[in-house]
Design a protein that fits this description.
By secondary structure, the chain is an alpha/beta fold. The protein is 38% helix and 18% strand. It has one domain: Rossmann fold (3-Layer(aba) Sandwich), CATH 3.40.50. It is built from seven helices and seven strands; from the N terminus they run βαβαββααβαβαβα. α1 packs across α7. The relative contact order is 0.21.
């Protein structure tokens, strides 16, 4: 069995923390979690980055997507959409789309915002769009997850979310962590079930 790719962009660390919690959920289901990020982009000129970041997860490449058994995609909210670096990376996946390389693989999305009305749900929905174009099978979070009803921070049926506060200093809460773990477990469980189905 292959790995679940957890692909994210994080500016201040909250989305990265969510990614690590999702990895815990993946591993609790018995699969490997592969954490990958993307470099920042510049509006002035194309920036030159080292191939390996100084800290954190390595940068993703198309082979990570091609080889994964499932995907968790995470980004902070930017005006109701994913951050530009993640969108830039996804815009470069046309060769995978043409080959159907992601078709039939399970996927989920996660986000972090500074305010409770900062566009969590619309960001998650907008992040699903390119995944649907790739033919991925979207999994969210059902209300059988009790934290979805009791969290005072983030958490949606479309995927885990985090409320970071106006200054970005609010840590990921225990409820938010458990919802991240639940998403990782769901994606991994779905990947295992899909791998076991009869061919044809």
């Amino acid at each position: 069995m292959s790995f679940i790719l957890i692909l994210y962009y994080s500016r201040h660390g909250a989305t990265a923390e969510m990614a690590h919690q999702i990895a815990r959920g993946v591993e609790s289901a018995g699969l490997e979690a592969r954490l990958r990020t993307v470099p920042a982009v510049s509006a002035v000129c194309e920036a030159i980055e080292d191939s390996i970041p100084e800290t954190g997860a390595p940068y993703a490449d198309l082979e990570d997507l091609r080889e994964c058994a499932g995907l968790a995609l995470g980004s902070p909210t930017r005006f109701g959409n994913m951050a530009a670096p993640l969108k830039y990376f996804l815009d470069g996946t046309s060769s995978l789309w043409m080959a159907g390389a992601l078709s039939g693989k399970p996927a989920g999305v996660f986000t972090s915002t500074s305010s409770p009305h900062g566009g969590q749900e619309v960001t998650l929905l907008s992040m699903m769009v390119p995944l649907l174009h790739h033919g991925m099978l979207i999994t969210g979070l059902p209300y059988s997850e009790p934290d979805l009803l009791h969290t005072r921070g983030g958490g949606t049926p479309y995927g885990p979310s985090h409320l970071s506060g106006a200054d970005g200093s609010r840590p990921v809460s225990e409820e938010e962590k458990r919802l991240c773990i639940a998403l990782g477990r769901r994606i991994a469980t779905a990947a295992i079930a899909l791998a076991r189905r009869p061919a044809g």
